[in-house]
Amino acid sequence: MESDPITAQHVQPVLDELKRREPIFHRPEFGTTRADFEAMTEADFWEVGASGRRYSRSYVLDVLEERSRHPVEDTWETSDFHCREIAADNYLLTYVLRQGERITRRATLWRRTAQGWKIVYHQGTVVAE
Q1: Number of CB atoms found within 10 A of residue 95's CB
Q2: Residue 126, phi then psi, degrees to nearest 5
Q3: Considering the entire predicted model, what is its pTM?
Q4: What Cα–Cα distance (Å) separates residue 62 from each residue in 56, 57, 59, 124?
Q5: How far does the chain reach from its first CA to its final CA, in angstroms?
Q6: Domains (ranges, CATH) in the chain?
Q7: pLDDT 10s digits, 80-109
C-alpha cells in the first residue's frame, strides 16, 4: 500500500502558488495565446501524455494554438496536490486530475526563473482501475 506524500512546510508557499497554475495550459488567467504558452514553458519543454506518447514543445504549442481557435468546454477537478523541491528553484508538483470518468495522475516539473514560473516537463498517467 502506498503512503500519501507530504509537502515540507518550507515548500508550502510554492505548493500554494503552483496549485493555481494547474492543470497547465487550462488557466486563462495565466495566458491563452501561443506567445503566453511559449513564455510559460522552457525552450526544451516536453511532455508525456496519458497515452504514453511523447510530445515536443513545438507540437504542444501547435495543439494549444488550434485549441484556442476551437474552444471546448472541459470539466475537470484537481485534488491530492503534493510539491517537492528537487533542486534549487526546481519543484515537482503532483496531483490527481478527474475529467468526467477519466482519472489521471499528473506530474509537472516547474522552475522558478527571473521571468516567472516555467514548465520544464509534464506527464499524465491514467489511474488503473
Answers
A1: 20
A2: -65, 135
A3: 0.93
A4: 10, 9, 5, 19
A5: 15
A6: 9-126 (3.10.450.50)
A7: 999 999 999 999 999 999 999 999 999 999
